Amino acid sequence: MKVATEAELDRLAPLDTVQLEDGPRWRITVRCPRCQSVMHLLSQEKPNAIARGIAAGLARRIVGTPLCDECSERLEAEEERRETAAQFRDRVSASQLPKALHGFEFAQMIPDGGRKPVIEAARAWATESDSKGLCLFGGVGAGKTRCAATAAWQRLRRAHVTWVSMPILIAQLGAAFSDAARREAIGVLTGTGALVLDDLDKIKPSEWAVTQVFAALDKRIQAGSPLLVTTNKTPTQLGEQFGEPVMSRIVGYCRVFELPGRDMRLQLPVDEKEKGNG
Do residues 148 and 245 share a domain? Predict the structure, then answer.
C-alpha cells in the first residue's frame, strides 16, 4: 500500500478511488494499533472483505496492520536503543573492567587542585576517535585508577577497551601453559586494541616481566591503538625500574600528566573507598 497525500485523501470517502499517474488507487482508512490515530492508505488492488471491514471500523487489530509514521519512528528508535545497550553490555563484559569500577562519570570527578587538565585529557582519550596514548602518574590514592576507569567506561560506550591490572596480568602469565587465564593474558600482550594498563609500576622488574611490559606497550604503539597507563612513579622512575626502552615508548607515545592531590581514599565514604582510586 502507498500512503497518499492528505490533500488527495481528504476528498475521498472510504473505499472510493483516486486516479494517480500509475493507475487507480482505493482508499482504506485504518487506525494505528499502537496509538489509535487514523491513517489513510491507498491500495493498488481493490480492497477485499477484510479491507472493507477495516475501512468500516469492524476490524481494528489484524496481523500486518501498519503503524503510523510517528509510531514507526518511535519503534525504530526503541529497537536501536535496545541494540546499542546490548552492544554496550557485551563490550563491558569483554573489557575485564572490574565491577567495582563500573559506572564512573566525568561529572563526578572533582577538578579542583590542578586536576582539571588531567580530567580533560582523560575525557579526550575516551571520546576522540584518533586518541593515542595517555600516562597518568601520581601519589598513592590520588585518583589515577578512578580517572582511568572513568575514561574506560566512557570509551566503552562506543568502542572496545581492555582493562588490565599489571600485577594480575603478570600472575596470569606465570600460570600453567594450559591455563585459560594465561591464554587470556597472552592475548592482551599480542593484541592491538585499546588498552588500559593500571598500576604498571606494581610488579617486580625481572627481565621476564620487563619483556612482557615491553610487548604490551610495543604492540599498541606499532598499531597506533589507544593506550592508557597509570603508575605511582614518574617517567624517570619508570625508566629506572623497567629500563630506557620501556620509558621511551611511554614518553614518546603518551601525553604524560601528573595527577596531584592527597590520598582521596581518606576523604571518601567507606563504600567509595572500596571502589579504588589508584
Answer: yes
109, 239: one domain: yes
Q: What is the value of pTM for the model shown? A: 0.72
Supply the DSSP symbol for 257.
E
- pLDDT of res. 132: 94
Provide the domain count of the chain.
2
> Is 38 domain-assigned?
yes
| 81 belongs to a structural domain | no
Q: Give the Cα-Cα-Cα angle 244, 249, 253 (nearest 5 degrees).
A: 150
Question: What's the mean per-residue pLDDT of the chain?
Answer: 80
Asked if residue 100 has pLDDT above 50, the reply is yes
**The three grid cell numbers given for residue 76, joined into one nine-digit string:** 525504530
Longest CA pairwise span in the chain (Å): 88
| DSSP β-ladder status, 17-20 and 23-31 | antiparallel
Is 235 within a domain? yes
Separation in Å, CA 80 to CA 75, 113, 114, 242:
9, 41, 40, 47
- 186-193 — which CB contacts under 8 Å span 24+ positions? 188/162, 188/164, 188/216, 189/215, 189/216, 189/219, 190/215, 190/219, 191/162, 191/219, 192/219, 192/220, 192/222, 192/223, 192/225, 193/160, 193/161, 193/162, 193/225
Cβ 39 vs Cβ 30: under 8 Å = yes
**Which ranges of 191-255 does DSSP label H, i.e. alpha helix?**
207-223, 235-242, 244-253
User: Among 211, 194, 192, which Cα is nearest to 203's?
Assistant: 211
Angle (deg, nearest 10), helices 235-242 and 207-223:
130
**Across residues 53-62, what is the average pLDDT?**
45
pLDDT digits (tens, 9 = 90+) for 186-222: 888 888 889 999 999 998 888 888 888 898 899 999 9
* Strand pairing report for 195-198 and 162-165: parallel
Which residue reads 592531590 in cell numbers? 261
